[in-house]
């Protein structure tokens, strides 16, 4: 059950001593983090550091074996994923959750109606959810994808498909957007298609992103937390992290394996 905790309205996301183990494998431990509203925060770290596990915990897909997750001051640690989504936490969809043969507009329209609580509109005839088209069209216009609306999703570049995934997460009108490696596998040219709309996003939405591409990180975020061996080893502004010796050691010293 969500319960009112001490109210810290300026903090969007707070983790208190969060830990998780899969069986006997301790993946993350003692993670404490505060992300103020509107901030763009990157979580970086080597493969296997526990970044995705941490995201799954924040999104409610995994319940941590230790600690507390607070969203806008409310304890959401034990809430199911759909409650996280309803409360305003949204994460990017994987490509596989899109429908490649349907048009871009249809994909967005389907996602919009699926977010309506308690509805089983997937079972209704297409004509009954036409009215989602208008909202879908607006969303596409906002992200500069209108000209692609009637193309099958599969015909879009990878960059554009990622853009649609992000747009679907935004269709839920989240106040916290979680992006797990949004630019992974993209060419330099495609990167901009993901980067530009994220940069333009209103500060009403707080962004936490896992990202390997340091150019993207340095371009997008205010602060960085570095995860290594399941714990946060450094936290600071882009400049502080760039200069941080521990971080340089992890990334350049080859000691992370
Ligand atoms: N469902 C799971 N069951 C067992 N081990 C897992 C599971 N998910 C992740 N792990 C392990 O947890 C560690 C951290 O994984 P992950 O959170 O995916 O790291 P990252 O996203 O930083 O690469 C890895 O050693 C991984 O093998
Ligand atoms: Mg990962």
What this model shows, in words?
- It is a single chain.
- This protein has helices at about 50-60, 80-85, 105-115, 130-140, 160-170, 190-200, 215-220, 240-245, 245-250, and strands spanning about 10-20, 25-35, 40-45, 65-70, 75, 90, 175-180, 205-210, 225-230, 230-235.
- The mean pLDDT is about 85.
- The protein is globular, with a radius of gyration of 19 Å.
- With about 260 residues, the protein is an alpha/beta fold.
- The strands form 2 sheets. A 6-stranded mixed sheet has the order 6-7-8-3-9-10, with helices on both faces. A 4-stranded antiparallel sheet has the order 2-1-4-5, covered by helices on one side.
- Helix 3 crosses helix 4 (about 130-140), helix 3 runs parallel beside helix 5 (about 160-170) and helix 5 runs parallel beside helix 6.
- Magnesium ion binds near residues 51 and 52.
Give a quick rundown of the structure.
By secondary structure, the chain is of the alpha/beta class.
Topology:
Layout (H helix, E strand, L loop, with lengths): L10 E12 L2 E12 L3 E5 L6 H8 L7 E6 L2 E2 L5 H7 L1 E3 L12 H11 L16 H12 L15 H14 L4 E5 L7 H13 L5 E5 L3 H7 L2 E6 L2 E7 H6 L1 H8 L5
Parallel strand pairs: 3-8, 3-9, 6-7, 7-8
Antiparallel strand pairs: 1-2, 1-4, 4-5, 9-10
């Amino acid at each position: 059950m969500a319960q009112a905790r001490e109210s810290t309205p300026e903090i969007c996301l707070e983790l208190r001593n969060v830990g998780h183990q899969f069986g006997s494998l301790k993946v993350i431990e003692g993670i404490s983090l505060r992300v103020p509203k509107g901030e763009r925060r990157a979580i970086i770290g080597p493969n296997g550091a526990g970044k995705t596990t941490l995201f799954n915990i924040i999104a409610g897909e995994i319940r941590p074996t230790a600690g507390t997750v607070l969203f806008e001051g409310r304890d959401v640690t034990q809430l199911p994923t759909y409650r996280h989504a309803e409360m305003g936490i949204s994460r990017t969809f994987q490509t596989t959750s899109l429908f490649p043969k349907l048009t871009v507009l249809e994909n967005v329209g389907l996602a919009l109606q699926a977010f309506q609580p308690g509805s089983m509109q997937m079972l209704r005839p297409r004509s009954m959810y036409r009215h989602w088209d208008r909202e879908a069209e607006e969303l596409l216009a906002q992200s500069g994808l209108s000209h692609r609306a009637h193309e099958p999703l599969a015909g879009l570049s990878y960059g554009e498909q990622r853009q649609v995934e992000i747009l679907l997460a935004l269709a839920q009108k989240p106040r916290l957007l979680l992006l797990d490696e949004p630019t992974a596998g993209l060419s330099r040219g495609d990167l901009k298609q993901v980067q530009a709309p994220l940069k333009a996003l209103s500060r009403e939405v707080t962004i936490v992103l896992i990202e390997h591409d340091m150019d993207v990180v340095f371009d997008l975020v205010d602060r960085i937390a570095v995860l290594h061996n399941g714990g946060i080893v450094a936290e600071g502004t882009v400049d502080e992290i760039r200069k941080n010796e521990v971080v340089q050691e992890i990334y350049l010293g080859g000691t992370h394996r």
